[in-house]
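Data availability (excerpt). The following record was deposited with the supplementary files.
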Amino acid sequence: MGKGCHGSAVPTHYIVSGNTVTRVVDPSGLSADQYPVVADPALSVSGYEYVAVNVTTKTQQPNYNKLICGCRIGAANSTCTITGSYTASATVNASLGISAQQVASTLGISVTASVTGSMGCTSPKLSAGTSYKAYVMGTYRYFTLQKWKVSKNGGVTARKLDSTAYNQVAFSPINMIYCTK
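Predicted structure:
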């Protein structure tokens, strides 16, 4: 609503065409003494912005949650060999109402990152019953995710921290394995 000279309400509406918003004032029913009409074009918009902060990166690290396979030593002072193929995909923590794809984009990584390879490794001589395992390696990103409420009112932008998710992790695999007991 706009306001007439004496503070009376004047009907208005908006027309959106492409990237243009036009405010239309309907002067029908106004008397001459209600002019001028003031229709403040200020527009208020609010939404959320997500920011990853305190990001640390560790490269060529084993992911102990991505076990490829393993073997167990049968007799004391013997070895075992692991061979095979594997496929590993990226994992990204998503919280605060944001998708894994949005978090990955914020971190500059791909949530669809995937590697496929073949591997083989032989254990050193170990005691009976010891397990030997192969894990996928990759790059970890540890971060804190912040959700900010962003309000724009008449050309002025205000940001207010809405919520924070600590201890977030993203893992992007590389075509390397790590074998260990």
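Summary of structural features: The chain has a mean pLDDT of 88.
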